[in-house]
Specification:
This protein has a single domain, classed as NAD(P)-binding Rossmann-like Domain (Rossmann fold), CATH 3.40.50.720. Helices cover 43% and strands 18% of the residues. The protein has 13 helices and 15 strands.
Length: 298
């Protein structure tokens, strides 16, 4: 199998490592020297290109599958549109126009497109209701991944990632120091996010579908913070209700909307597709971080 990973970053690098270990041919696309070095360290071939520049994408060889995992760098909605909508469309058009176009595109989206569901469970059939400019861009990009790709003869799969964590992104201080605002956490370890994409590439199922990528156990932030503190051997942090956090008056409009969005994400479909988690819940996923924290304190 020949795979191009466009935006071979946090998840993409782990995906490249996984695919290379399984004897697949992988090309990781980045723009910076450091990024290219990171791709090469996985054993994949590094290609300097920009998803918004069709000419530069010409340097990527013909492949069977394209994974679009580019990042907008945490910037606003305009930057997100440039990468996730315009860049995605550019990439689809560039690869579709080849004599040997790819069979499939996998686009990595976010569970942020669901909006608020009052703490109820959501799944792939739940209507989308994005509440911020950026999540509205992500919802539009999902349509590009499915509809525009199909128009160009490429099957499009959308993977909606829950909150990513793992090496370099455990953010222990956020929950150990507090205060912690009420709400739900929907999470997936980086290794499983990459593992799911690899699993989907290696199966004929869900080729033109949407798959919610989240672990087995959504958890309240307060419950998670207390568990983490107990495991790390520190006092449990201060807690705040949503109302208390909103009344503080120091939040942007977008931050207020994020606090007000509440949902729990189901992975029933992912389980049905046969994926087996390396880290089924946060308990397994945070163990390495907890052990490192306690070792540093000794």
């Amino acid at each position: 199998m020949r795979v191009a990973v466009l935006g071979c970053g946090y998840v993409g690098l782990e995906l490249a490592r996984t695919l290379v270990a399984d004897d697949h041919d992988v090309w990781g696309v980045r723009r910076s020297d450091d990024g290219l070095d990171a791709v090469e360290a996985t054993g994949a071939d590094a290609v300097r290109a920009d998803v918004t520049d069709a000419d530069s994408l010409g340097a990527v060889p013909d492949v069977d599958h394209v994974v679009f995992a580019a990042s907008s760098g945490g910037r606003g909605a305009d930057a997100a549109r440039t990468v996730f909508v315009d860049g995605l469309r550019t990439a689809i058009d560039q690869f579709a126009a080849r004599d040997s176009p790819p069979e499939r595109l996998v686009y990595t989206s976010s569970t942020g497109v669901y909006g608020d569901h009052g703490g109820d469970f959501v799944d792939e059939s739940t209507p989308l209701d994005p509440t911020t400019d950026k999540t509205r861009v992500l919802a539009e990009a999902e349509r590009v991944a499915r509809e525009h790709a199909a128009e160009r003869g490429i099957e499009g799969t959308v993977t909606r990632f829950a909150g990513l964590y793992g090496p370099g992104r455990y953010r222990l201080d956020r929950y150990l120091t507090g205060p912690v605002t009420a709400g739900y956490l929907n999470m997936v370890h980086r290794d499983d996010a990459a593992g799911v994409v690899a699993h989907l590439l290696e199966t004929d199922r869900a080729r033109d579908d949407t798959v919610l990528v989240v672990d087995d156990e959504p958890v309240s932030k307060h419950e998670f913070a207390d568990w983490l503190a107990d495991e790390c051997g520190v006092p449990r942090p201060e807690k705040r209700t949503k109302e208390e956090r909103l009344d503080a008056g120091d939040l942007s409009a977008a931050a207020r909307r994020r606090i007000l969005t509440s949902k729990r994400c189901s992975n029933d479909y992912l389980r049905e597709l046969g994926y087996s988690f390396a880290y089924p819940t946060y308990r397994e996923g945070y163990r390495a971080a907890i052990d490192a924290y306690r070792a540093d304190g000794d």
